[in-house]
Amino acid sequence: MSDRTGDATETVVACAQIALSVGDVEGNRRAALAAIERAAAAGADVIVLPELANSGYVMRDAAEAAGYAEPVDGPTVTGWHEAARRLGVIVVGGFAERDADGAVRNSAVLVDASGVRACYRKAHLWGREGELFVPGDALPPVVRTDAGRIGVLVCYDVEFPEWVRTATLRGADLLCAPVNWPYAPRPAGERPAEDVRVQANAAVNRVFVAACDRAGPERGTSWVGGSIIVDPDGFPLAGPPAEDAEHLLLARCRLPEARDKRIGAHNDVFADRRPELYGPVLEPPPLPASNPSEHTTERTER
Question: Tens of pLDDT along 98-151?
């Protein structure tokens, strides 16, 4: 996408970390559209929005989630498509979806000027999400776009290396992950563990990753506010911000670099794989029977 970046090999990726409010669907839609406008004005080609950007996150029960959910051709995604078409950008954003069968999903779409290119349903549900949403069972999509090959995951999906690897093995140059990362205490001076996991996934797969978090307290929950854009070496190109607040992160990414999986003259992170040895990882054997008290004693003695 050379006309926006000035370099045909560069794509400007943005994470729009915005404040959301549970249940304020109209306000959340306005905030997301305003963020898309700001990012495009700053030169972004690909714009990532947070998880559940239409509904907010901390919902009381399944009935409340169902009340905020909307179809993929509803006003939220339609608005993103119209903005993408008008501004010439790609938008990846999360939303509470009601699918064709009436199931409520924690979903994310990739839209560009041509329309909705992919709708992905989060496969790995976190915490109480299992009470609110039906998990997806399809692999993360990898979409060929004018910017490059973009994969889509949602939040907790990123913590499953096997799931991330499925997208990179299918050629993703950039993984876009709408996220909502609840804040948890960490040792002084330590970075958020969520960002560390994003960096690790980027490095072991040699792929760009853009994870867009959210901001703003919600029903007693605070957020990491840890949006980050990472290069194939695992190093941050932008972010994470220092606090839970609204931020627009921008990074220039040479996405074709993600297709070179070599590390030095002798190694290649894909060619060096030995899948014939990985069966126990994919289908682990049953744990041996043991006496829990024996393990407790052993730990105490150490």
Answer: 999 999 999 999 999 999 999 999 999 999 999 999 999 999 999 999 999 999
Structure tokens of 160? 């499953």
Candidates 155, 176, 212, 253; catalytic one: 155
In the predicted model, is pLDDT for residue 250 greater than 70? yes
Is residue 159 annotated as a catalytic residue, yes or no?
A: no
Q: Which of 170, 178, 241 is nearest to 207 (CA)?
A: 170
Q: How far is CA 294 from CA 285, 288, 290, in A?
A: 21, 13, 8
Per-residue pLDDT tens digits for 72-107: 999 999 999 999 999 999 999 999 999 999 999 999
Each domain of the chain, given as residue ranges in start order, spans: 2-301
Catalytic residue among 97, 119, 122, 176: 122
Q: Which CATH superfamily is domain 2-301 in?
A: Carbon-nitrogen hydrolase (3.60.110.10)
Catalytic residue selected from 10, 51, 97, 218 = 51
- Is 51 one of the annotated active-site residues of the chain? yes
Distance CA 164, CA 209 (A): 10
pLDDT tens, residue by residue, 269-284: 999 999 999 887 777 7
Is 155 labeled as catalytic in the residue annotation? yes
